[in-house]
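Handout for the seminar on molecular recognition.
Each group receives one record of this type.
Step one: identify the two inputs.
Step two: read the structure output and locate the region that could contact uridine-5'-diphosphate.
Step three: write two sentences on what you found, then compare them with the reference statements printed after the record.
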Amino acid sequence: MEGKAHGAHVLALPYPTQGHINPMLQFSKRLASKGVKATLATTVFIYNSMQPPSSESVQFDTISDGHDEGGFAQAESIPSYLARMEAIGSKTLADIIIKNKDTAHPVDCIIYDPFLPWALEVAKKFGLVGAAFFTQTCAVNLIYYYVHHGLLKLPISSTPISIPGLPPLELQDMPSFVSVSGSYPAYFEMVLNQFSNTDKADWVLVNTFYKLEVEVVDSMSKVCPLLTIGPTIPSIYLDNRVENDNDYGLNLFTIDDLSVCTDWLNTKPAGSVVYVSFGSLAHLSNKQMEELAFGLKGSNFYFLWVVKASEGEKLPENFVEEMGHKGLVVKWSPQVEVLSSKGVGCFFTHGGWNSTLEALCLGVPMVVMPQWTDQPTNAKFVEDVWKVGVRVEVDENGVVGREEIESCIRKVMEGERGKEMKENAKKWSNLAIEAVSEDGTSDKNIEEFVSKLIKASP
Ligand code: UDP
């Protein structure tokens, strides 16, 4: 069926941040490669920020979150942003459906981010198929499911926490919204509300792959039937298979020059560089930036560090000049290309799910310095379940000191344990390729989704 055109048209609606747009755009491309017409709807503000706002196989459209000029930064508070997005977003989402109604490709299905559960109500109002697309791990989703359904009572009174399918978890392994009571109540409500109507969704899709989370997927499937469809990383990065539309992301940040990072990496010996990035949202304290800078310097490895424009002033004075050829500091990188480079030996990451999955699938071991949300749980799995990295220890002042940073980098870059982590990462990378290759678990699930869609579409 590869590439064959038919009538089905999916409309994908990610939550408007980089880490939610990337996997949904990639999934849309995969559906397009299977002959489905795919449109990705972002907010007007995000659409105008995209670099570049184009893809060969996926069309774009816009909804409004009520902040067309400045996006989230313009909102008074998180709750007011979410409420306004629901009110204006559901109306403007309906407008896209109405606009397409009498065309050759009316919308058949809305693939929505469950951070925006109201999108399912819009789908149902128009009699469309509704598919929830979870951008975090099954493990994290299962924890939220348990809390939402009152199966895990908060605040947690005793540890280890035991949830079928998950390893015993300590408080520090839980998503921050669960372990730190009262933190970001609006986001906490949002992650729990993902399950407010999943029982009415026609599909629940998760960006993971079966062998990565066997017990968790089996356990969650009993309470919430789901399809694993990941990783959504394009084949060209996974196994050099060339597809039509290979660009990875829709960068919301400007990359100065696409080849700056890869050219620099190509001059370095294999496995000699520490790649450092904390994703699109995290902000580190001045002290933490300083410790990180001196930890990298102390390790004496080459490093490529993404310091977002908003973080630049926190770098120690003259650090970049002093490091000379040892380090390259950029404002944003083509991350998947960087992780695919032979020069990279270790990824120093915040443990966001996309970053973690990208590293796993490209065979790069990690040092994880989780900041918030699902990252602590991802760090637990990286270290203890997948055994592809180490998690940093935070000192009594809430900072990760330079010695700890240096020591964690050494554990991954050197010695027997480092070698084992590298081998494990390679193993996961092969299993990821298997999952998305023809007849792999994720590929079969995507085929099932597409074939039911075709049958349902007139
Ligand atoms: N990313 C990138 N360049 C960078 C840093 C991040 O392209 O310099 C991409 C990365 O590949 C990933 C996404 O941004 O797909 C970040 O998502 P993640 O879930 O890791 O973290 P978040 O930004 O949501 O905290």
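Reference statements: The radius of gyration is 21 Å. Confidence is low (pLDDT under 50) at residues 1-5.
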